Amino acid sequence: MRGKAILMAAACLFAAQNAWAADTTQQVVNKAPNGLAQTPPMGWNSWNKFACNISEQTVRATADSMVTTGMKDAGYEYVVIDDCWHGPRDDNGFITADPVKFPSGIKALSDYVHSKGLKFGIYSDAGRQTCGGRPGSQGHEYQDALTYARWGVDYLKYDWCDTGTRNAEEAYAVMADALRASGRPIVFSLCEWGTARPWLWARNTGNLWRTTGDIWDSFDKNDKEHSWANSVTKIVDLNEPLWPFAGPGHWNDPDMLEVGNGGMTPAEYRSHFSLWAMMAAPLMAGNDIAKMDESTRSILLNKEAIAVDQDRLGAQGHRVAKDGDKEVWVKPLSGGGRAVLLFNRGATPVSITVENDDLGYASGMRAKVRDLWAHKDAGNWKGSYSATVEPHGVVMLRLNP
Ligand code: GLA
Q1: In this structure, are 165 and 55 located in the same domain?
Q2: Which residues are catalytic?
Q3: How far, in Å, CA of 381 to CA of 369, rounded?
Q4: pTM here?
Q5: Are residues 274 and 335 in the same domain?
Q6: How many whole angstroms separate alpha carbon 202 and alpha carbon 85?
Q7: Under 8 Å between Cβ of 86 and 95
Q8: Which structural domain, as residue segments, surrounds residue 184?
């Protein structure tokens, strides 16, 4: 009897240890960071401009323009095809490309993008169908991850349509594991719109997570017919409080850029771009790069604003002062510097002031001030700085101690 009890106890202990070991292994697997996106990803995504109206010609032309316009040199790296590239699954369940829009296949397109010195991204969905009604990855996660790796995919945006009763944390972990098992380093972009508060759990699952519904090409008008669509200022107010959750390898994603798509004034687009840079947001251009005008170019290619976004400290800046429409934003930079945004949400010009206290600087702190849109030095820091800010506009500064 006693011997049997000992055996049973030993068996239980063994089982418990095994369960513990399996559990720990699982945790280790889930927590292994992929080491990617140490600064917010930069690139281009097809959705905001082209929606489902995409083809391999459009993607190739965009890759060409990324190089010829200087976007690549400015740091834009990933060329991402969003929804609607898919054809049906084949008899073995492998996903294929739409044979009409992508007759050469995705591997050939990926090779082309790589030949330009850029990286290649693709889109899928954690549900049965994508938001555009194409095949989703549910039940095919490992198969799809393997296909993407074979195609040379470097970035996966993974959406949340048609997910039924799925649990987001679990569903995204399955694809994260599948991507890791594929053996190819792939940036994992969660597009769950913030519903299940991914900032609380996605840090060890993916490299970036959407915090809101879709962006709408407007400064402050929210489209009543499309409740999922959010103006820039609405997104800003949703994404701003999440600043403690961002850092190297894991970023809040307030959605892709609308700069150049025609719904905002140049001042508003400068604000949009500056706020994204202050929030260490991914900078995914969403316009037709092959046809962009000088104004759009001057915004997307503002290397001084991009440097704020890409600062290696990886801190997300946030609002430190608000007085009606007048806002002061600060982003700590590596080396003790600060990026400062004086933001006027109103329709008339106003004077906005930033002070030592806003920056966490002691009085007497010495620093040089640089105006990042005027591209001019603006003298020495004297404990405060005031500027007149145009309607819906910004003055963006960098303080270098
Ligand atoms: C969702 C996403 C968008 C885009 C579309 C594609 O709405 O949030 O960014 O990917 O799906 O259908």
Answers
A1: yes
A2: 159, 214
A3: 6
A4: 0.92
A5: no
A6: 26
A7: yes
A8: 28-309
Q: Which of 82, 86, 195, 255 to mutate to test the pocket of ligand 1 (most atoms within 8 A of CB)?
A: 82
**What is the secondary structure of 105-155 as a DSSP string?**
-HHHHHHHHHHTT-EEEEEEESSSB-TTSSB--TT-HHHHHHHHHHHT--E
CA of 297 to the centre of ligand 1 (A): 25
Rounded to the nearest angstrom, the distance between the alpha carbon of 222 and the centre of ligand 1 is 17
Domain-located, residue 14: no
Same domain, 297 and 264: yes
Number of domains in the chain: 2
Q: How many CA atoms lie within 13 A of 310 on its CB side?
A: 15
Give the residue from 309, 342, 373 where a domain finishes: 309
Residue 12 lies in a domain: no
Same domain as 200, residue 323: no
Q: What is the CATH number of the domain that holds 385?
A: 2.60.40.1180
- Closest C-alpha residue for ligand 1 atom 11: 131
CA dist., res. 340 & res. 166, Å (int)? 41
- How many Å lie between the centroid of ligand 1 and the Cα of residue 53? 14
Pocket around ligand 1 at a 6 A CB cut-off: 47, 82-83, 130-132, 159, 191, 214
Residues 68 and 124 in one domain: yes
Best probe residue, ligand 1, of 44, 46, 47, 49 (max atoms within 8 Å of C-beta): 47
Ligand 1 atom with the smallest distance to the CA of 131 is: 12
Q: 219 pLDDT exceeds 90?
A: yes
How far CA 328 is from CA of 54, 280, 342, 378, in Å, comes to: 40, 16, 5, 18
pLDDT in tens, 136-151: 999 999 999 999 999 9
Q: Over the stretch 2-60, which tens digit does the pLDDT of each residue have?
A: 333 333 333 333 333 333 333 344 444 445 579 999 999 999 999 999 999 999 999 99
Whether residues 292 and 163 fall in one domain: yes
Within this chain, do residues 302 and 224 fall inside the same structural domain, yes or no?
yes
Pocket test for ligand 1, best of 50, 83, 84 (most atoms within 8 A of CB): 83
Centre of ligand 1 to C-alpha 246, Å, is: 22
Single out the residue in 309, 340, 365 at which a domain terminates: 309
Token duo for residue 145: 């991850």
Same domain flag for 288 and 340: no
